[in-house]
């Protein structure tokens, strides 16, 4: 039988999920997950490597595929299944896998529900919850049932959407495969991904180059239509291919001649309402705008098509950045030449919310500092968790102060290396010189590490550490990490009480939401934001795409209320420092400029902008 890589990956991933329900060894589960990812990324059909005639070492050469997994793949290629999968399917049902995506539904809970009530899918679970059948089971009281029903509602609403970073990852992988065809010059994501929305329902990829011209495009279309990542081919036309990926994300690929690329990019990027407003503007000027060009109505002469800038300028508008194309006043601002100079990554000088392996991070103090220097930052703060978060190895007062001493010691070491013209700052400068950067100048001030804490806001608004401890730290970020079920009045009073503590300088991820996973807790921002502005407390935009909190809408509110705003990564590893890019996209969507953020300032000015210590 013939089996493609996508089907192989799905079967391996499904087996991993069934193993989770069966409470198998975590290492074994991870091995199946890694194998599924490895198989999905292969461009060579693995069925050709799993035949008796094939070299047995070919499968083993793929990272993530060992001898046992290679044997599983051979079974799948030969029979369409494998013994372990059949064993698990006799014990459980495939529909149970979706239950794992619901809040509070871990593998043990899913297995218990199946054993006690034979619940094997979401519909049966919802019906049982509404009947009250779950109340007799361990740890499933009314609160759990209510939360579960809300989770089912959220899951159904969000099932077809993908977080921006996940969608971007899919776009990059598809683009990499498309580029393997000769004559592809440019591939640009459009739609909600290019506008930077927190989540995407589908992907639009615009492709151009010699291979996309009308007389040769058929071969390029065939290449796209047979990409190994495709799970289901939906449509194939003269210059468009639509398909679903294994995770369900729909991708629309359009192959376009260079002459109309700008028009298509504008057309497929703007929101519906932005594009309607732009087309109406064109009509008033005797023009018509479509995905191919901006044309004069009277004679169909092309006015602009090759670039977006040409199109906006021909409509008497300044170029409108993609993040603003939501019909929220950007067209009027572009007409009056008052669009803001939006923030960029180069404007960010510091990041003062991140974690090390002292709590739940991956890297050391020094590793986080060196990674920040490599990214051009001038200062960071290490803000590990306080003791209330036991699951994160949070610190008590004694550990917090000892940790602060180690942070300052590393900062002193880096300063000494700077004075001796050694260390990572000078290595980065030398690398810039080697790369021929025209504006490379010697670093003038040493990189600084600040000693901080992300202190928990407890249920009553008290903080998790003593004031005497907080007074000895450079940065205090206060955040809610538990007790999300409080009423709006309780949660608002809780955070306001914490804000009154004179040592709190930053409110971390102020609404507690997680994109597509958890709604914000109930809190009155109309009360909180003015209070933060009055107290001089900065409100955080948490750049982690899983949080994106404050949202772009709430960031605009914060600016209107006169709040100090800061963007931090909340990084738990050196790689996550790059999450600042995701944060910047949301800041741009909120129309924020460098002057609207306090961590665009040099260190001394930044410290002076923080709430003064009493």
Question: How does this model look, in words?
Answer:
The chain has 614 residues and is α/β, with parallel strands linked by helices. It has 4 domains: 5-158, DNA polymerase beta, N-terminal domain-like (DNA polymerase, domain 1); 162-256, 2-Layer Sandwich (Beta Polymerase, domain 2); 263-335, DNA polymerase, thumb domain (Beta Polymerase, domain 3); 345-395 and 450-609, Metal-dependent hydrolases (TIM Barrel, Alpha-Beta Barrel). It is built from 24 helices and 17 strands. The strands form 4 sheets. The chain has a 7-stranded parallel β-sheet. Strand 8 (287-289) and strand 9 (294-296) form a beta hairpin. The longest helix is centred in the middle third of the chain and has 23 residues, at 397-419. The termini are far apart.
- CATH level 3 topology of the largest domain: TIM Barrel
Query: Helical segment tally?
Result: 24
Total number of β-strand segments? Answer: 17
> What proportion strand?
5-15%
Major sheet details: 7 strands, parallel
Which ranges are low-confidence, i.e. pLDDT below 50, for 5 or more consecutive residues? none
Tell the overall outline: globular
Give the rounded overall mean pLDDT.
92
Radius of gyration: 27 Å
Helix coverage percent of residues? 40-55%
Structural class: alpha/beta
């Amino acid at each position: 039988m013939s089996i493609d890589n996508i089907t192989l990956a799905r079967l391996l991933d499904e087996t991993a999920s069934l193993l989770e329900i069966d409470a198998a060894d975590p290492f074994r589960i991870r091995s199946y997950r890694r194998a599924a990812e490895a198989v999905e990324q292969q461009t060579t059909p693995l069925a050709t490597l799993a035949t008796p005639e094939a070299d047995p070492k070919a499968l083993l050469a793929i990272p993530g595929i060992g001898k046992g997994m290679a044997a599983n793949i051979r079974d799948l290629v030969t029979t369409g299944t494998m013994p372990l999968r059949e064993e698990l399917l006799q014990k459980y049902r495939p529909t149970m896998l979706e239950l794992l995506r619901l809040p509070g539904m871990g593998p043990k809970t899913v297995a218990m529900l199946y054993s006690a009530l034979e619940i094997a899918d979401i519909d049966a679970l919802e019906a049982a919850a509404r009947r009250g059948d779950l109340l007799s089971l361990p740890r499933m009281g009314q609160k759990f049932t209510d939360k579960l029903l809300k989770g089912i509602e959220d899951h159904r609403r969000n099932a077809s959407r993908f977080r921006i970073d996940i969608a971007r990852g899919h776009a990059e992988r598809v683009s990499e495969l498309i580029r393997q065809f000769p004559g592809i010059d440019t591939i640009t994501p459009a739609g909600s991904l290019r506008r930077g929305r927190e989540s995407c329902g589908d992907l639009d990829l615009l492709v151009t180059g010699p291979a996309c011209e009308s007389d040769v495009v058929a071969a390029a279309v065939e290449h796209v239509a047979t990409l190994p990542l495709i799970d289901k081919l939906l449509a194939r036309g003269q210059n468009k291919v639509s398909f679903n990926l294994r995770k369900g994300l729909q991708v629309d690929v359009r192959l376009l001649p260079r002459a109309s690329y700008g028009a298509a990019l504008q057309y497929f990027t703007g929101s519906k309402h932005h594009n309607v407003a732009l087309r109406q503007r064109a009509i008033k000027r005797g023009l018509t705008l479509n995905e191919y060009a901006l044309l004069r109505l009277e004679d169909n002469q092309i006015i602009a098509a090759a670039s977006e800038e040409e199109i906006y300028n021909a409509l008497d508008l300044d170029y409108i950045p993609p993040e603003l194309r939501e019909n929220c006043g950007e067209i009027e601002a572009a007409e009056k030449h008052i669009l803001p100079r939006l923030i960029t990554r180069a404007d960010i000088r510091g990041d003062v919310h991140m974690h090390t392996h002292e709590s739940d991070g991956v890297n050391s103090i020094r590793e986080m500092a060196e990674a920040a220097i490599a990214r051009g930052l001038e200062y960071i703060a290490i803000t590990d968790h306080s003791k209330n978060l036991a699951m994160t190895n949070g610190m008590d007062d004694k550990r917090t102060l000892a940790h602060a001493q180690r942070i300052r010691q590393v900062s002193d070491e880096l300063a000494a290396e700077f004075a001796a013209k050694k260390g990572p700052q000078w290595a980065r400068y030398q690398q810039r010189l080697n790369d021929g950067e025209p504006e490379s100048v010697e670093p003038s001030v040493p990189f600084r590490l600040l000693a901080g804490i992300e202190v928990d806001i407890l249920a009553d608004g008290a903080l998790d550490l003593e004031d005497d401890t907080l007074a000895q730290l450079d940065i205090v970020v206060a955040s809610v990490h538990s007790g999300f079920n409080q009423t709006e009045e309780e949660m608002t009073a809780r955070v306001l009480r914490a804000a009154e503590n004179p040592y709190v300088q930053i409110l971390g991820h102020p609404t507690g939401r997680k994109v597509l996973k958890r709604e914000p807790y109930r809190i009155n921002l109309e009360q909180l934001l003015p209070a933060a502005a009055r107290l001089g407390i900065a409100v955080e935009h948490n750049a982690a795409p899983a949080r994106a909190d404050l949202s772009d809408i709430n960031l605009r509110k914060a600016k209107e209320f006169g709040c100090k705003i800061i963007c931090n990564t909340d990084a738990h590893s050196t790689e996550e420092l790059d999450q600042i890019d995701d944060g910047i996209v949301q800041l741009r969507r909120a129309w924020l400029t460098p002057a609207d953020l306090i961590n665009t300032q040099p260190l001394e000015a930044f410290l002076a902008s923080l709430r003064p210590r009493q």
